[in-house]
Amino acid sequence: MKNWYALPVISWINADRSFEGRCFQEAADLYLKGFSRNKRHPAATVISLKLAYCQCKLGQHREAIKTFRRSLELNNKSRETYIRLARLELWLCQAEHAYKTLKQAVSIIGPDAESAALLLIAALDSNAPQRDISEAYVIVRRFVGVGSETPLVSLAVARYDFANGLKNKAKSAIMALCEKKNAPLEAFITMGEILLGEGNISAAKLYLREALALNPQHPKTQTLLAESYLTESPGRSPEYALQLASNACRSSFWENLHSMQVLAEAYYQCGKRTDAVLVANKVRSVGLEKLRREKLSTQP
């Protein structure tokens, strides 16, 4: 147990007991209670990570994001906080936010293999300007062939290669990654997305089902798999696609345009035209709101 050289916070001690017992709501309440008077306690960063974990387990992802950001306001040199926040933003299909988070981390505390790889992946996912993607690639290259290259670094480089026209090389590298025991979830999602884009639906489903088995609640996996079941091919099932796309929209709090577009198509193919129109209108309103927020964020 780490000695923080500070007085213990009783509510945090009780929260840890609840945390270990997987009573996440009780733990979250007690962690928050302790924060009311101990925001600058030496253990505050560690407690913030535990609180955010509880909030994620409870489906309170927006609250978890706020917890991470408040923690970074008090301690902007916690690499683990940046990485967990960025991973959550990527989970919620908020790649542009993840890119900004990781860019800040690299700027303030420098990159490690994980943050560098995630930075490049977020840049690619958010369709960042080519200059930003190239800068992220240069950072990732520092960790290629140095010691034990991580699977995430290999995946990020392969994705960059694919985006820059080296498609066969990239596909071979990603397929090889998927064969390894420690293959990252993102490798299966990426391979499934590539094959889906090429029209190889049956192969795409194999990779996406593997990704779903690794994490059944991942919004991007659910969305891509739903899309595959809406395509004219053997095994087409709009009903199953509707189930997957609905789950994806809930998991991403109805903020991911791609998930909602797939859901609207699923409703349409299931003959539920009214629901399809309602979701299509939701896509439009969310898209306009995102444009408004982006415009405000760029104003001086």
UniProtKB/TrEMBL annotation:
InterPro entries: CellSynth/LPSAsmb/PSIAsmb (IPR051012), TPR-like_helical_dom_sf (IPR011990), TPR_rpt (IPR019734). It comes from the Bacteria. Pfam families: TPR_6 (PF13174), TPR_8 (PF13181). TPR repeats lie at residues 185-218. The keyword Repeat applies. Keywords: Repeat, TPR repeat. The keyword Repeat applies. SUPFAM superfamilies: TPR-like. PANTHER family: LIPOPOLYSACCHARIDE ASSEMBLY PROTEIN B (PTHR45586:SF1), TPR REPEAT-CONTAINING PROTEIN PA4667 (PTHR45586). This is Tetratricopeptide repeat protein. It comes from SAR324 cluster bacterium.
